[in-house]
Amino acid sequence: MRALYERAPSLLQDLKVSIHDSSLVFPNKEAERKSIFLSNIDQVLNFDVETVHFFPRNKDYPAERVAEKLKKTLAKVLVPYDFLAGRLKLNPETGRLEIECNGGGVGFVLGSSKCALDEIGDLVYPNPAFSQLICKTLDFLKPADDHPLAIFQVTSFKCGGFAMGISTNHAAFDGLGFKLFLDNLAAVAADKPLAVEPCNDRRLLAARSPPLVTFPHPELLKLNTPAGQESSPPVFEATQDDLAFNIFNLTSDDITHLKEKAKATHAANTRISGFNIVTAHIWRCKALSCNAENNMERLSTILYAVDIRPRLNPPLPASYSANGVLTAYARASCKELSEGPFARVVEMVYEGARRMTDEYARSVIDWGELYKGFPHGEFLVSSWWKLGFAEVAYPWGRPRYSCPVVYHRKDIILLFPDINQGYGSNNGVNVLVALPSKEMEKFQTLFHNFLA
């Protein structure tokens, strides 16, 4: 077992992208003008998520035809997704963000690169130059608050392949909602009905009246600290650390091996899933590599997202298009992570997700109504592993690879599907880690030792 990359591959620093046209795409039917409620989960996610989807050459669908088809398709899809054509605004009476459903449209940008797709190199490896395939703002829009919730950029490569870069405000979608949107986009582009009718009723996750917090929530950080006390910044505030980064690969065989280790001593009711196994393995490595003072009593808290759609009573529709995930947590001492059985670490990860019952989720949402806080922990595992963006079948084919534009953060570890193993149910996973160099060396040693 080794890190996937012993040293960073040679990366193109400049994809030589030229922008040829920027415009807006409007819904092809006028929607009702209204203000759309945003849940307390949506409220704290007012930032952009950038994804890039790479496509090889398709002689029947050159990039110009794809762009034309995509533009017409968006005009149709923005009817059932009317909120996406709106604008975020702050309601001065309630102090809450809302979406003004005004048909303002989404951005659409055409570009070209002087590079061939194969010249970019390994698509799995994070390349800062991928940001050139994303448009973050449309300069022709004034005033500044007229900012689309989504901007699409189609960039052609000289080989005939192309990239579809999409910037979306996280308040609009979570990963599952975005995958559903892409499925619908692909279906309509193929002149088919929507794959699934989206459920856009965000009041399904409204707080109770009055709010009722029935659990302690150590995974959340209050921002309204008492007067005179210094408030702590959110745990995921960007740092200025000089970070090394690497991608570690766990093959299907590695994951099976870790499962067997856990099954040897696991509790009967613990779910030995791929995610739980990989997350437990990463947790041990990360917590111990950052334990500079070797304080084995130090507590480490790991955070990870849990889909609450099927966990509520009644369940949310699977087609719920907005943010339907909450942050679960697990906490243990460094001693327990280092010396305890691996099965117990897996069990704690599983217990964190199992804690997310209907009442717990409602308690979190109500907590947000009272305190306007953020997730709080040592680090977050953000999984893109099973979202399936590269499985979406567009008329011009499936993506060669789909990934977020990555900004290296010490407090966020990312999971990606392994491009070399396909997208089966037991495929491998790539783990992106960014740490100061000494911590990275220790992480890598632990990663290998715990896998043995």
Structure, described:
This protein is of the alpha+beta class and 452 residues long. It folds into 2 domains: 17-205, 2-Layer Sandwich (Chloramphenicol Acetyltransferase), CATH 3.30.559.10; 220-451, 2-Layer Sandwich (Chloramphenicol Acetyltransferase), CATH 3.30.559. 24% of the residues lie in helices and 23% in strands. The protein has 9 helices and 17 strands. The protein has helices at 40-43, 63-77, 175-189, 252-263, 274-289, 334-339, 342-354, 358-371, 437-451, and strands spanning 17-25, 34-37, 48-55, 87-91, 96-101, 106-113, 150-156, 162-169, 220-221, 244-250, 299-307, 325-333, 374-375, 379-383, 401-404, 412-417, 429-435. The chain has a 6-stranded mixed beta sheet with strand order 1-6-7-8-3-15, with helices on one face. It has a 6-stranded mixed beta sheet with strand order 10-17-16-14-11-12. Helix 4 (252-263) crosses helix 5. Mean pLDDT is 90; it is low at 225-240 and 421-426.
